[in-house]
């Protein structure tokens, strides 16, 4: 065997073990008994120890020095393996294992604290997570910016400065649009009523199929915080149900289907290799957000969904498809990021970006985080946080150490805006398909233009290749302004 073949055989085993570790995380959030939390932490640490040893194996450096690739795919494999090896060797094995153990425990503590609105019980373990992640960031940064080192885990090529510049350009137009909407004379009526759990879940499963989710290679379960897990031929999704708000379940499901379909749509030849997963979380979010918003919340698709909801739940308080479209896209300063309308969503992300950047850089102490959150939320949204589960405790991300992850949600929206523009140029009769509940044209274009390529290109190159132009925030902001000025008759 050549050095390249030896390296890829070793890498496939590492990727397979990583998938097993991911399955432990999926089980922890869906089916694991509560009493198993401490043991699961030790299991996760043990798995991370094995994975870290493989990712830093000296043979990788030897293989990389001798490996030769004959095509673009092989060169991309070597590029990603080299990048991962260089990053992994900077982090001590002890630290990698401790992070896995503490974040596994912290997730359970967060869930309990969220259920009880008890911030005080969560802050000590959050302090441990922040300390460990800062230590990891220092090892990775080599004297550079700590937060940039963590962003690189989720969005290679991006920095806090480049992301901050995008946010600075977006914020004024988003705030101006929000103010115009909230002051508009016409305000859509909210959907009201009670919608049974089982009926919502049946609809969620049907919608997942409508958007191309393959249940022979996945499953739908309930979780406190909806997420997608896995890749290759096993990509699972979760949702949650609020009986007074079916949009929570519907759009959480469609969002996670976007993530899962990206993984399931990657070229099968890349299975269990570095190219066999999404290239970045920003690109991943572009898929979940375009499925959820530009497709799922479009006038055409909600017209079809209105008929489905009326058939399954009876007469709705919104009398026609137009009113239903307004209800789906109703703008309000709500507390919860995952339930936020398209206008407010990025403002939620910008707030978290600033707070977590200050935490990692040492400008904000964990003990002061709740106060900083509440003060910033009141300033940005004009509403006082009424309880911790509507504030600091609403998101799972910080409990599991995902610092640097949040800004990728807004980058995903930016990328989705670009993809939507190109998709509609490529499929001019898209709305006719969506109005009939048919997404094949849309998801087919996304699969061929972006999803099947996996990690072949860098994040921005992936979007550029799919769209044919350099990605920026313009298409997203133009889409939002046109859509909501129509809905609110501005």
Question: Can you lay out the helices and strands and say which pair or pack?
Answer:
Elements: H1 3-30, H2 37-55, H3 58-66, H4 72-88, H5 93-116, H6 123-141, H7 146-154, H8 160-182, H9 197-210, E1 220-222, E2 228-231, E3 234-239, H10 246-265, H11 281-295, H12 299-313, H13 321-328, H14 342-361, H15 369-381, H16 407-426, H17 430-435, H18 440-449, H19 459-467, H20 474-487
Parallel strand pairs: 1-3
Antiparallel strand pairs: 2-3
Give a short overview.
This protein has 490 residues and is mostly helical.
Polypeptide structure, described:
The model has no long low-confidence stretch (mean pLDDT 97). By secondary structure, this protein is mostly helical. The radius of gyration is 22 Å and the shape is globular. It has a 3-stranded mixed sheet. It has 2 domains: 3-144, no CATH class; 160-487, Neurolysin, domain 3 (Orthogonal Bundle). The chain has 20 helices and 3 strands. α11 (281-295) packs across α16 (407-426). β2 (228-231) and β3 form a beta hairpin.
């Amino acid at each position: 065997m050549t050095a390249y073949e030896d390296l890829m055989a070793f890498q496939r085993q590492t990727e397979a073990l990583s998938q097993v570790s991911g399955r432990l995380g999926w089980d922890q959030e869906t089916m694991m008994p509560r009493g198993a939390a401490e043991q699961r932490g030790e299991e996760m640490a043990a798995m991370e120890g094995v994975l870290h040893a493989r990712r830093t194996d000296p043979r990788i450096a030897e293989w990389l020095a001798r490996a030769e690739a004959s095509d673009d795919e092989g060169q991309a494999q070597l590029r990603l393996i080299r990048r991962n090896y260089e990053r992994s060797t900077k982090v001590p094995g002890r630290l990698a294992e401790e992070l896995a153990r503490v974040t596994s425990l912290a997730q359970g503590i967060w869930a309990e604290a969220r259920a009880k609105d008890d911030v005080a019980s969560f802050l000590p373990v959050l302090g441990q997570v922040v300390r460990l992640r800062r230590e990891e960031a220092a090892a990775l940064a080599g004297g550079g910016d700590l937060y940039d080192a963590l962003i690189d885990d989720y969005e290679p090529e991006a920095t806090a400065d480049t992301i901050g510049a995008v946010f600075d350009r977006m914020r004024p137009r988003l705030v101006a649009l929000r103010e115009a909407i909230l002051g508009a004379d016409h305000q859509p009526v909210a959907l009201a009523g009670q919608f049974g759990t089982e009926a919502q879940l049946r609809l969620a499963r049907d919608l997942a199929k409508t958007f191309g989710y393959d249940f022979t290679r996945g499953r739908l379960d309930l979780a406190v915080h909806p997420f997608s897990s896995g890749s290759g031929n096993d990509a699972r999704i979760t949702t949650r149900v609020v009986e007074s708000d079916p949009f929570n379940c519907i759009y959480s499901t469609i969002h996670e289907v976007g993530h899962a379909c990206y993984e399931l749509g990657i070229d099968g030849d890349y299975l269990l290799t570095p190219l066999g997963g999404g290239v970045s979380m920003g690109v991943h979010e572009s898929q979940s957000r375009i499925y959820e918003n530009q497709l799922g919340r479009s006038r055409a698709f909600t017209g079809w969904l209105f008929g489905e909801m009326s058939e399954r739940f009876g007469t709705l308080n919104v009398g026609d498809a137009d009113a239903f479209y307004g209800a789906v896209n109703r703008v309000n300063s709500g507390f919860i990021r995952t339930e936020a309308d398209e206008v407010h969503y990025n403002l939620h992300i910008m707030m978290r970006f600033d707070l977590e950047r200050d935490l990692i850089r040492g400008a904000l102490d964990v003990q002061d985080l709740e106060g900083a959150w509440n003060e910033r939320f009141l300033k940005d949204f004009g509403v006082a946080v009424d309880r911790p589960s509507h504030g600091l405790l609403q998101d799972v991300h910080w409990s599991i150490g995902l610092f640097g992850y949040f800004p990728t949600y807004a980058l995903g929206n930016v990328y989705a805006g670009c993809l939507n523009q190109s998709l509609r140029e490529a499929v001019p009769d898209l709305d006719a398909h969506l109005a009939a509940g048919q997404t094949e044209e849309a998801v087919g274009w996304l699969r061929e233009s972006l999803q099947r390529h996996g990690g072949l290109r860098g994040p921005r190159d992936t979007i550029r290749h799919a769209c044919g132009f350099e990605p920026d925030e313009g298409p997203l902001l133009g889409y939002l302004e046109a859509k909501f000025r129509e809905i609110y008759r501005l």
